[in-house]
Design brief:
It is a single chain. The chain is an alpha+beta fold. A 5-stranded antiparallel sheet has the order 1-3-4-5-2, covered by helices on one side.
Length: 158
Amino acid sequence: MSAERRITQRGLWFDEFETGVVYEHRPGRTITEADDVLFTTMTMNTQALHLDAHWAAQTEFGERLVNSMLTLATIVGMSTGQLTNGTIVANLGFTSVEFPAPMRHGDTLYGETRVQETRPSRSRPGQGIVTLEHIGRNQDGVVVARAVRTVLMQGRPR
C-alpha cells in the first residue's frame, strides 16, 4: 500500500508573495442585519447609525448602515485562508483605511488583496515584510472599503 499524498491548507510563505498579484477571495459574504447588530453590540459600538432604525431613517442614508469595522474585519478575514493562515508572524499595522461607500444590510461583500511590496526583514532572518492592499466591493462592484496593511511573514521552512 502506498502512502497517500496529503496537502495542508496554509497561507503563503514570504518568498511566495509576488508584487502586483491580485488575489480574489471567494465566496463573498452577505452581511445580514443580525451580523451587524451582533458585531456592533459585541464591540460596544453604540453608534445609532448601526442600532437605531428610527434615527437612521432620518439620515441622508435613510436606513441603518453596516458597521465599517465589520466590513474591514471581514475583508481581512477573507484573505486569511489564501494568504496568511499559519504563515503570518505578526500583523504590523495599517497605514491607510477608507470607506468610500456604505455597506447596507443584505449587501454581499467580495474581497481582493493586491501585494504592493515585499522585502526581507532586516532584523529577523528567514522572515519578510509584505504590504497588502485589501479591497472590499459590494455585489455591484462598488468599492466599500480599502485598507493598506503590513504583515511580517514567515519564510519557507528549510
